[in-house]
Design a protein that fits this description.
With 450 residues, the protein is of the alpha+beta class. Among the domains are: 49-99; 152-263, no CATH class. 26% of the residues lie in helices and 35% in strands. It contains 8 helices and 25 strands. The protein has helices spanning 19-33, 51-63, 66-99, 244-247, 269-294, 339-348, 394-401, 409-414, and strands spanning 102-109, 111-123, 131-132, 134-147, 150-156, 159-166, 173-175, 180-183, 188-191, 197-199, 203-205, 208-210, 212-220, 233-235, 248-252, 260-266, 299-301, 307-310, 314-317, 323-338, 358-360, 367-370, 377-390, 419-427, 441-446. A 6-stranded antiparallel barrel has the order 6-13-9-8-14-15. Strands 2, 3, 21, 22 and 23 form a 5-stranded mixed beta sheet that branches. Strands 4, 17, 18, 19 and 20 form a 5-stranded antiparallel beta sheet that branches.
């Protein structure tokens, strides 16, 4: 029976093992995993250790275990791949955003006020280095309803068109003015005063005689609605009793109408003058709008060139009894010139050396005095303050600023005489250049007060 020992006599193992032994064991274990068969390990006599020391040893062993290391390597590799993928997505998004970038370019054009006082010669058929002009004429009318101030008796005769035939002979027949024609119901109509005519004779067509014919207008012998008629046949009563009576006849080509005997509301002289002034004001107002539609593109109307030829006021019965519709028309002529050529002539005559890229924005407010047309030429005197504005083509602006750095944008247009100032807004905000594609650039021109 073994001798019992006191606890004080038991040699306790050290809490900390040398690091070299731990590494040696880990290395030995790794080497042994690669062999096909591992020799059985000798069991060491169990020694009693404190739990805390045993757990630390196990933790160190797991940390240096090949299985744990392999898992860490895989986890680290996946992290790198995810990082690369996110970086590529960010770069791709950045590139796409730049390719779809847009820019709004605001250009303020240069302006200058120019005193004008000169005369220009315009030619109806201008040749090279001469200013030419054209004349456009159109008609404008206006009407208004007005209460009649008095009534007048109206007696008017019916009238209509007829065709007169000569089936009597091959010889023409002369008919005097106011020759009478008798309708089928016995009413008499006449040729007008000074409306004598000659009816052609028969002609031969394919071996047959064809009656000669001529158109004419006849008027009822008396006023009144009784002579209004639908188309009818006529004879010439003056030939009655002679062979010509059967050979000469006529037929209506239109209804006979317009005959009336009545009282019509009219205007007295005072009201007539008042209505004339009112209608003329309306015509002048309407003509301004109508002129706009009559002007070809690239032309302008010289102020003060409008000429009016006024027609007489006519009446017709109004919708309500005792009212009339008064109507008046005017034939209007205006002088047109080519806008840009005229502008350049005005600016060159006002001291400019070059006016190819300049417009006058207030040509319509300048004062013009035109001389009478003489041998195809007229002189126009022009006075006032012209507002000259330089201009540049939108496509030219896009060409200059496309793919330019934002910092250099203003300098790119600074050398252009037409430009007063520029401003650009580029999206997205991180884009360092304006879009390369011109379609992604919008150009806006602004007016400035001078």
């Amino acid at each position: 029976m073994s001798e019992r020992r006191k606890i004080q006599d038991i040699n306790m193992p050290s809490r900390k093992q040398p690091a070299s032994r731990v590494r040696k064991k880990a290395i030995t274990a790794k080497v042994r995993r690669t062999t096909t068969r591992r020799a059985p390990m000798k069991k060491k006599p169990a020694t009693r250790q404190k739990p805390s020391t045993h757990k630390r040893a196990q933790t160190r062993m797991r940390a240096h275990s090949p299985i744990v290391a392999s898992r860490k390597e895989r986890s680290s590799g996946l992290g790198v791949l995810w990082g690369l993928a996110i970086l590529l997505l960010v770069i791709l998004g950045y590139v796409i955003s730049l390719s779809m970038s847009t820019a709004s370019v605001e250009v303020t054009l240069k302006e200058q006020r120019v005193p004008v006082e000169l005369s220009l010669e315009l030619f109806e058929d201008g040749v090279q280095d001469q200013l030419d002009f054209d004349t456009v004429t159109f008609t404008v009318s206006a009407e208004a309803a007005v209460a009649a101030t008095e009534f007048e008796a109206v007696e008017e005769r019916a009238f209509g068109s007829i065709t007169i035939f000569n089936n009597h002979s091959t010889r023409p027949q002369r008919l005097l003015e106011e020759t009478r024609f008798e309708s089928a119901d016995g009413k008499i109509y006449k040729l007008g005063k000074g409306a004598g005519l000659t009816v052609p004779g028969q002609t031969e067509v394919d071996g047959e005689l064809v009656p000669g014919s001529i158109e004419a207008i006849v008027y009822a012998a008396d006023p009144g609605a009784d002579y209004n008629s639908s188309p009818t046949d006529f004879v010439i009563p003056g030939f009655r009793g002679s062979p010509k009576f059967e050979g000469f006849y006529a037929r209506s080509t239109t209804p006979l109408e317009g005959g009336v005997v009545t009282e019509r509301p009219v205007l007295d002289e005072v009201e007539l003058l008042r209505m004339s002034d009112k209608l003329q004001e309306e015509i002048e107002r309407k003509s301004g709008n109508d002129i706009t539609y009559q002007i070809p593109e690239g032309y302008m109307v010289l102020g003060g060139s409008e000429q009016y030829v006024w027609g007489e006021i006519t009446y017709r019965d109004g919708v309500d009894e005792g009212w009339v519709i008064a109507e008046q028309s005017a034939e209007i002529s205006v002088t047109l010139v080519r806008s840009q050529e005229f502008t350049e002539s005005v600016l060159l005559g006002s001291g400019f050396e070059d006016a190819t890229n300049i417009k006058i924005t207030n040509l319509d407010t300048l004062d013009y005095v035109l001389s009478d047309l003489s041998e195809g030429m007229l002189t126009v005197s022009i006075t006032g303050n012209a507002n000259a504005r330089w201009f540049i083509d939108e496509g030219e602006v896009k060409r200059i600023v496309a793919n330019v750095k934002k910092k250099e944008f203003a300098e790119a247009l600074a050398g252009r005489e037409e430009v007063q100032s520029v401003r650009a807004e580029v999206k997205p905000l991180w884009a360092s250049r304006l879009p390369k594609k011109k379609d992604n650039i919008q150009v806006f021109f602004t007016n400035i007060d001078s």
